[in-house]
């Protein structure tokens, strides 16, 4: 299977509730290595740019204001089948529908405060990793 990179964001609720370490431990145990990592407060422009694909959606404003409500942890994860593996560890977008044992089922409060973001395709993963990290900041 191919070695891929994907973007993971621990959203403001995950950071505020002190779940950063537990979430990273799940990634490492599953064979996903954080090859770049940064804690950051996103600006409105950065959050809007990142979620530009959702601009026309009714939840866009709430999503952006939630994402800038506190610091986030940005990571590039590397490993076999990283994009899908990360999505599997995250669980469904709505934590009420997420499988037991997934990050969202265990830590998330609502569809807005759903603890993590993960790229949803290899192509988006490449763009999303490049949105936040220079190649010189990634160390595999
Ligand atoms: P993410 O991008 O954060 O990894 O989550 P996702 O792929 O599972 O969900 P996506 O459809 O890309 O939506 C991005 C984020 O917007 C919020 N959302 N709210 N109120 C709603 O119906 C709704 N739908 C989506 C969620 O916080 C979701 O993670
Ligand atoms: Mg998405």
UniProtKB/TrEMBL annotation:
Q: Name one GO molecular function term.
A: nucleoside diphosphate kinase activity
The positions flagged as active site in the entry are 117
Q: Which Gene3D superfamilies match?
A: Nucleoside diphosphate kinase-like domain (3.30.70.141)
Which segments constitute the Nucleoside diphosphate kinase-like domain? 3-140
- The main place the protein resides is cytoplasm
Reactions that this protein is recorded to catalyse: a ribonucleoside 5'-diphosphate + ATP = a ribonucleoside 5'-triphosphate + ADP; a 2'-deoxyribonucleoside 5'-diphosphate + ATP = a 2'-deoxyribonucleoside 5'-triphosphate + ADP
Highest rank taxon of the organism: Bacteria
Annotated compartments: Cytoplasm
* Protein's name in the database: Nucleoside diphosphate kinase
The organism is Corallococcus interemptor
């Amino acid at each position: 299977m191919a070695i891929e990179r994907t973007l993971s964001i621990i959203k403001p609720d995950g950071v505020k509730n002190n779940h950063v370490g537990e979430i990273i431990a799940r990634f490492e145990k599953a064979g996903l290595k954080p090859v770049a990592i940064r804690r950051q407060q996103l600006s409105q422009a950065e959050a809007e740019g990142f979620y530009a694909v959702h601009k026309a959606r009714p939840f866009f404003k709430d999503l952006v204001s939630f994402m800038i409500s506190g610091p986030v942890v940005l990571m590039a994860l590397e490993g076999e089948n990283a994009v899908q593996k990360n999505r599997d560890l995250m669980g469904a977008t709505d934590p009420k529908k997420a499988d037991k044992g997934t990050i969202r089922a265990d830590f998330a409060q609502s569809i807005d405060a759903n603890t993590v973001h993960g790229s949803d395709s290899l192509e988006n993963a490449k763009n999303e990793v490049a949105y936040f990290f220079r190649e010189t900041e990634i160390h595999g």
